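re the bet — no i am not wrong, look at it urself. input seq straight from the record:
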Amino acid sequence: MNIRSLMMVCGTIGSFIAGAFGGWTTSLTTLCILMGIDFFTGVVRALLWQNSSKSEDGAYNSSIGARGIAKKFFIIVIVYIAHRIDIEIGANYLRDGVAIAYIVNESMSIIENLGMMGVPIPDILMQGISVLKNKNKDKDDSINIGMFLAALLAADVVLAFSFYDSYAMQM
């Protein structure tokens, strides 16, 4: 396969993916970049510092790495689902809101990895992470479905009021 054919295949796949997400936005780009950085810092932390919180001995474990990749894939799936819900309710904000929530989560994970590697992190940032961790201490790392459904309900209420306003304006 020559370079032109490879570029054509990559361009086709890229345009299909971008189209599936309703266009490629900066929030999607940021999320993908941060996901890559988080994975990389997690692997470096486990390989070189051997203080990973994911394995019993803190060392690198390929099955844990594979689970991390799978989780990141499913994060993208959830962003895609949010986009499809946007389409169904006639909105244009749920996809980016979900992406931004995951951007915050990935940023916190990167900062935690860097802090565990001895990279100096400003105290205010570490205090913020500590507050968020303590707030969710009794919860696991999975998505809080109740909060997600509450956000959907709120979006639905906003949408209903906007339809009502546009209907009232027509009368």
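see?? The mean pLDDT is 82. told u. also The helical segments are 3-20, 26-49, 62-89, 94-116, 123-135, 145-170. so pay up
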